[in-house]
Amino acid sequence: MIRNYLSRYAVVGLLLGLLIVPAPPVQAQFTVWDPTNYALQLAKKIEEANRWLETIRHYATMVDKTVQQLTSMQGVSAMSKNNWRAMSGWCDSLAVWARLCAAPISSTGSSKV
Q1: DSSP 3-state assignment of 57?
Q2: Are 84 and 74 in contact (CB under 8 A)?
């Protein structure tokens, strides 16, 4: 009889002890790779890159138009020849930059001008 009570108390004590003691942290055994989600994320990145390219092309067009407007003002402008040479050199630099930004990028990473 005393033995029965002791064994019951021991079992209840062990169960309570197991409930009170925190479980060890779990570790993943396998890496989960979802190809559908990967393809979706890749498509989103490609769309974002295309939006950036479109933005760059837009700014390159704006720079080209600005260069054309500044170079067409030569006869109208009252600038001295030295100032005009400096301005046209700056405009030529902007035009080269605009052409480089608007050029399509090949698979090797170089742009064709």
Answers
A1: helix
A2: yes
